[in-house]
Amino acid sequence: MKELLALNVYFRRYAGKMLFGVCCIVLSNVVGVYVAVFVREGLNEAVLHRQTAAGLGGEALMGAVYGAAAGFVVLLLLAAALKGLFMYLMRQSIVVVSRKVEYDLKNDIYNHYQQLGLSFYRAHFTGDMMARIGEDVSNVRMYVGPAVMYFANIIFTFITVIAQMLMVNTQLTVWVLIPLPLLSYSIYHVSKIINRRNTDIQNQLSVLTTASQETFAGIRVIKSFGAESAFFDDFSAKTEEYRRLNMRLAVVNSLFFPLMILLVGISTLMVLYLGGRAVEAGTFSAGNIAEFILYLNMLIWPVASLGWTTALVQKAAASQKRINEFLEHEGEKDGAAVLPFQFNKEITLRNTEFTYPGAAKPALSKINLTIPKGSILGITGKTGCGKSTLAQVLTAQISPNSGEVLFDEKTPGAFSRKDFNNHIAYVPQDVFLFSDTLAENIAFGLAEGAETDEKIAEAAAQAGLARDIAQFPLGLKTLLGERGVLLSGGQKQRVSIARALIKDADVYIFDDCLSAVDADTEKEIITSLTQKLQGKTAIIISHRLASLQAADHILLLDEGKIVEEGTFSELVRAGGSFSELYKLQSNTNYLC
Ligand SMILES: Nc1ncnc2c1ncn2[C@@H]1O[C@H](COP(=O)(O)OP(=O)(O)OP(=O)(O)O)[C@@H](O)[C@H]1O
Ligand SMILES: [Mg+2]
Predict the structure, then answer these.
(1) 360 and 309, same structural domain?
(2) pLDDT at residue number 333
(3) Distance from the CA of 65 to the center of ligand 1, in angstroms?
(4) Distance CA 199, CA 205 (A)
(5) Which of 26, 61, 126, 140 qualifies as a FRET site for 236, CA 20 to 30 Å off?
(6) Helix (H, G, I), strand (E, B) or coil at 380
(7) The last residue of a domain, from among 267, 295, 327
């Protein structure tokens, strides 16, 4: 339960409204007791008048009886209306607070997610993150709102109603209350079973959602392999399981209400039987029986909800635990680092090493490197040799396990994170486009309001997109569809490049981002890039050696190490792996 203490800040934030809600609960209970009292008094008066005016007979007798009870009927209606008003205000304050807390909590979690580093995202599934900000927050809301409200209501109803019952008849009160703990306990038990089965249903639902999401995302592959029926069978099996779980829940649900009504019925029967005998003995009135049945009805819901409320609190505690787990993850600190990003001389890597968590061997080992400001560095090497890892270390997306990355002797952590990111334009190997227009996707690299049509068109042209855009009927306003499905692989890569070029950065990193365009176009684009990036520092990663001809310095990586380095002609002349590769690519016309 201590997990729920994390919510105290929110309770404190809305303490006034919460307190007002609790006051309404107290008042609605006090007024509620008067409803029963007025019924008793009215009925007793009516019975009394029926006896005293028995001689009148007929119409006159009825008139006398109605007259005696009329005042109490008015009071009764007033009390019931007041109780209704207080209950309305109670819900209006506490349930509204719970919605506000839900809103705040969601925003806080979302903000926290945004501050978490990439290592967090590598270790967690998107679905899990969505569940914690969605379903888990909803469970917590049920605690902040309904559970707290019902719990306070239970306490005050018990105090007011049971005190009143004891004042009227102690012995009958004890008898009537005996089945109630049993009711509460069994409801608690049934609620737990319902919750468990509900969780199974939720889990199965997320299996279904993931399966359908994956099917739609991979529909091109599925169709081209003619695998529709296999996917359909798999989906049918999953929906069948979902149906079975829902039916299991329906069975318990259908037992729930009859069980409640049975136990309540036993208590009512006891009031009638024992109360009836007391009336015969002259120690109880007919009004008392009616009053007791009303008290019993007032107690039933709180007793029933006690089990339900406890289950809600347990569920909320489990959810809050999951939320806290993520909130406790340290975000990327930007506290002390306020320096604007700047470097005048060089970027240096000293003995930089990095091993992915759980990996057997390092992705980068003992990298020593100097990149003078304004130069172009080319990186090549076999697949899996550590090129992308090196790019991510340079962009401070991952921190080396040992060694350093320095911008004029300053680590990336010394700079304001935002400013650092603004000055480093990184084109990742995996393109990600948003389901927005081409223009918006390119302007993504700029601050809100800084984008202009000219800038976007210029960046698109520099990335070699001008011809493609001219062919789109809506030009830059073309909608790209989910993840840019409407573009070819090479077009997507060039949009990603344009997104980086539109930034006025100091360092540009292109991670194999022209692999999907033909060799000629790649060379053409790289030539225009190197012209545009005069005076800027650029790092070009490519498998095609011809693309690296413009580089001032080239690294050949193998298994995380620099195995050869130098200028293009030096490497070709050296007769090592680079020159072998160069010959191979020339012979296979790879260079065109
Ligand atoms: N998130 C990760 N977790 C664990 N290991 C990883 C992860 N990403 C990469 N690796 C491993 O680290 C090594 C270097 O990967 P990296 O992505 O840097 O290669 P690369 O040179 O960019 O390859 P490619 O040319 O195919 O893009 C590989 O052996 C790879 O399996
Ligand atoms: Mg890579």
Answers:
(1) no
(2) 59
(3) 91
(4) 10
(5) 126
(6) strand
(7) 327
Position 338 in a domain: no
Please state, rounded to an integer, the average pLDDT across all residues of the chain.
86
> Count H helices, E strands: the chain?
22, 9
Distance 557 CA to ligand 1 centre (A): 12
Q: Which of 308, 346, 345, 322 shows the shortest CA–CA distance to 153?
A: 308
Euclidean distance between CA atoms 336 and 397, whole angstroms: 19
Look at residues 301, 312, 200, 210 and name the one whose alpha carbon lies nearest to residue 252.
200
pLDDT (tens digit per residue) in 438-473: 888 888 877 767 778 788 888 888 888 888 888 888
DSSP alpha helix (H) spans, 400-553: 417-423, 438-443, 453-462, 466-471, 489-501, 519-532
376-381 and 537-541: which strand pairing? parallel
CB under 6 Å to ligand 1: residues? 122, 356, 359, 363, 381, 383-389, 429, 512
Relative to the CA of 560, which ligand 1 atom is closest? Answer: 14
- pLDDT tier at 592 (50, 70, 90 boundaries)? very low
Examine the pLDDT at 328 and tell me if it is beyond 60: yes
Nearest CA to ligand 1 atom 12: 363
Higher local confidence (pLDDT), 125 or 16: 16
Upper half-sphere CA count for residue 84 (Cβ side, 13 Å)? 6
The whole-number average pLDDT for the span 328-335 is 68
Ligand at shortest distance from the CA of 387: 1
- Token pair 């081409």: residue: 438
CA distance 86 to 161: 17
Percent of the chain with pLDDT over 70: 96
Using the atom order of ligand 1, give the atom closest to the CA of residue 391.
18
Choose between 236 and 359: higher pLDDT: 236
Which among 368, 372, 373, 418 is positioned nearest to 390, based on CA atoms? Answer: 368
- Sheet containing 346-354: give its strands across: 364-372, 346-354, 402-407
Task: Calculate mean pLDDT across residues 394-401.
Answer: 88
Looking at all shown ligands, the one closest to residue 392's CA atom is 1
What domain range is 462 assigned to? 346-587
Q: Is the pLDDT of residue 584 over 70?
A: yes
> Can you give the pLDDT at residue 349?
92
Q: How far is the CA of 469 from the centre of ligand 2 (A)?
A: 28
Same domain, 430 and 322: no
- Torsion on CA atoms 217, 218, 223, 227, rounded to nearest 10: -120
Per-residue pLDDT, 206: 78
Rounded to the nearest angstrom, the gap between the alpha carbon of residue 65 and the centroid of all alpha carbons in its chain is 63
Residue nearest to atom 23 of ligand 1 (CA): 384
Which-ligand-closest: CA of 119? 1
Among protein residues, the one with the nearest Cα to ligand 1's atom 22 is 388
- Transcribe 89-157 into DSSP letters: HHHHHHHHHHHHHHHHHHHHHHHHHHHS-HHHHHHS-HHHHHHHHTHHHHHHHHIIIIIHHHHHHHHHH
The number of beta carbons lying within 10 Å of the beta carbon of residue 522 is 22
CATH number (domain holding residue 52): 1.20.1560.10
pLDDT at residue number 591: 45
Structural domain includes residue 340: no
User: Do residues 301 and 382 share a domain?
Assistant: no
Q: List the strands of the sheet with 424-427, edge to edge.
A: 424-427, 507-511, 537-541, 376-381, 553-558, 561-566
Residues 190 and 161 in one domain: yes
